[in-house]
Amino acid sequence: MMLNGRIMIVSDRKQVVAELEPIVRRGSHLALTVPDAREALRSLEQGLVPDLIISDLGSSTAHDSAEYLSRFRHINRAGAHLVVVDEGAEVPPAGSTIPLRRPFRDGEVQWAIEAAVGRIGEEVVALRGQVCREMEEMRHGMRELRRDVVTALAGTIAARDPYMHGHSVRVAALARRVAEAMGVAPADVELLEFASLLHEIGKVVVPLELLHKTEPLTADELEQIRAHARAGAQIVEGVASLRGAARIIEHHTVPYDALHPSLDSDSAEFLLAGILHVADAYDAMTSPRAYRGALDHDYCARTLEAGSGTRFHAAVVEMLLRIMR
User: Fold this and answer.
1) What is this structure's pTM?
2) Looking at domain 6-131, which of 3.40.190.80, 3.30.530.20, 3.40.50.2300, 3.90.230.10 is its CATH number?
3) Exposed, middle or buried, 141 (CB in 10 Å: 0-12/13-18/19+)?
4) Can you give the pLDDT at residue 1?
């Protein structure tokens, strides 16, 4: 039994309403009475959706019930329908709906209402499970779609410079390990992974010869390269589901002590940008570049420790070095 079920009585016969309403209320249900099909449809469109509708077949507008019943079944898949049938009148086909014969017998009417409401409760439980499964499938589909978008965007990096793509993949793997070790929420770990895979995408606007230049960079050239984070954020921001990653990409090159007030130090983005910054720096140092070979771990560790708390997030440096040991 489901207490406080919402029951709509559709009848323009005052006597039928006067007989039914007390029976409905004795079962601890809420009764809403409307005179005709038009008012029933209006109530449904205004959001007054009952669990059970009782239609009076003896009402003068009973023949107009198809539209509001169709609407009711569309918005309440678990809803039930009963009909009032006068003595001697034709009974609806078995299985299509449940008749309430008039003159009413209180016990029979109350039993029919309770049985209908009870079935609704069972169907709601089943529907809840079905809806949960459908929502999980939708979430999974959205995650896969977002991953496909990230893969496609990351592919633009690899097409232009295979080194940058390999770097981004390594940074993403390292950033994920650090984030998980620091207890970051799974959704934020996934967002960080996407940001890591795409953190170099802004370099598509930087001339390739500048990226591969072996001579010292001029001030203007250095500024062009440093601007890639903002450019990458603008590219990624165009994808609605990745806007959170855009802010991480934009701030991942900003020194730790300059991140605030750009980002709230208590926000998830502040920590995620700090993780990406440290992981990016570590992989950049331990990977060969056009102008130098790979640097050894000890040198990289000393560099990170020297910048801990100023250039780099101190807790992230500590965790990354612990992992790499």
Assistant:
1) 0.57
2) 3.40.50.2300
3) exposed
4) 40
Phi, psi of 26 (to 5 degrees): -65, -25
Specify burial of residue 169 (Cβ count, 10 A radius: 0-12, 13-18, 19+). middle
Report d(CA 276, CA 248) in Å as an integer: 8
How far is Cα 37 from Cα 87, in angstroms, rounded to an integer? 23
Kindly state the helix (H) or strand (E) to which residue 31 belongs, with its residue range.
Answer: strand 30-34
What's the pLDDT tens digit per position in 267-317? Answer: 899 999 999 999 999 999 998 776 678 889 999 999 999 999 999 999 999
Which residues, other chains included, contact 137 with Cβ-Cβ below 8 Å and sequence gap of 6+? none
What are the residues facing 218 on neighbouring strands?
Answer: none
Question: Please, what is the Cα angle at 54 between 50 and 57, to 5 degrees?
Answer: 145
Backbone phi, psi, residue 266, to 5°: -95, 0
Domain 161-324 maps to which CATH number in 1.10.390.10, 3.65.10.10, 3.40.50.261, 1.10.3210.10?
1.10.3210.10
Positions of CATH 3.40.50.2300 in the chain = 6-131
